TrEMBL record:
Name of the protein in question: Protein kinase domain-containing protein
Domain of life: Eukaryota
Organism: Schizopora paradoxa
Length: 328
């Protein structure tokens, strides 16, 4: 875990404006000092210099870096996230300071479980051109240091496993229970490392929320629950965004919704699809037709009996190898 208690400051790389000049480093090292929360245990020993890093996001007045305490390829060198604001108006800096307060004061109980660990809010400055007049105002820099919990989800929520989507909703629910609502919940608000997910980006939140969600159940994979079942309309909207539930008018086959009137029950579909690890994309229509065909027999035979009488084709094979059949 990142430990900054032995350093009075941290020297971080800040990107310079415009296109870099030949043979010039496009980053400037800036000394940052901890501003919040105040830490009386800091030992004035040395400045920690960050030399190994990569850009994750870059805009004109703000950005995000992944940084390493030591060389990234050395065993034991921990990475962490630097979210910074540079120059511009005070709006960006104030937003970072508010986010720091959210992490430290309102979501401290969720750090390391549902959100990244927060290591502090830092401030610093630099002169834009040291050769200019000494009266030039320094350029302000502010940043927060966070645990590195991986990269943002790079697919639609609906493409994630159902169990993962349910866990993400529970994490959002626990944020709600801390009195906050995420103003704009999207895939970019979720990062993952392996099968572990964390929520990020708390600059834009509604405070003072009294969430009636009781915790626990989110009814994943079931028919869309009512507002009363979830308890919180805002959290109900998150469930819809996560595609956590199935419609009362449709069924779901490997993430694709189909009209309920044309297919057997969802329970039967789940049994018929059990054991299909994957299928050739050109066989999707065949798969759906084979499942649809069971609707004719649903009243007089179980899905298992149907699969015995009408064996399931190997939908993982290319169409040419599968040959022709009635399900084309």
């Amino acid at each position: 875990m990142l430990d900054l208690s032995r350093h009075h400051s941290v020297q971080i790389p800040i990107p310079l404006w415009g296109n870099p000049l030949p043979d010039c480093d496009p980053f400037l090292a800036v000394d940052m000092h901890k501003n919040y929360p105040k830490d009386s245990s800091l030992q004035d020993l040395s400045s920690l210099k960050i030399r190994d890093f990569e850009e994750l996001q870059r805009e004109f007045t703000y950005g995000v870096l992944r940084a390493w305490v030591g060389p990234r390829d050395v065993h034991g060198s921990n990475s962490f996230i630097i979210k910074f604001a540079i120059a511009g108006s005070d709006k960006r800096h104030k937003a970072l300071r508010r986010e720091a307060a959210v992490y430290h004061e309102q979501l401290s109980s969720l750090q390391g479980k549902d959100i990244p660990k927060f290591f502090g809010y830092y401030e610093g400055s630099f002169l834009e051109d040291e050769d200019e007049d000494e009266d030039d105002s320094p350029v302000r820099v502010s940043c927060i240091f966070l645990e590195d919990c991986g990269d943002a989800v790079d697919c639609n929520f609906g493409d994630l496993p159902l169990a993962d989507r349910a866990e993400i909703m529970k994490k959002v629910g626990r944020v709600h229970q801390c009195g906050l609502i995420l103003d704009d919940f999207q895939e970019q608000n979720v990062v993952s490392k392996g099968s572990s997910y964390r929520l990020i980006d708390f600059q834009h939140v509604e405070t003072g929320h009294k969430c009636p969600w009781k915790g626990g159940r989110v009814y994943e994979g079931q028919v869309i629950p009512t507002f009363d079942q979830i308890g919180c309309p805002a959290l109900h909207n998150v469930g819809l965004e996560l595609q956590l539930w199935r419609s009362r008018l449709s069924v779901v086959i490997f993430g694709k919704t189909r009209p309920k009137r044309d297919f057997p029950t969802q329970k039967a579909i789940d049994i018929l699809c059990r054991g299909i690890g994957s299928f050739h994309f050109e066989n999707e229509k065949r798969l759906h037709n084979w499942i649809r065909n069971y609707k004719e027999f649903e009243a007089r035979m179980t899905p298992e009996e149907y699969m015995t009488k009408y064996p399931r084709p190997d939908f993982g094979l290319p169409p040419k190898q599968l040959g022709k059949d009635e399900y084309e």
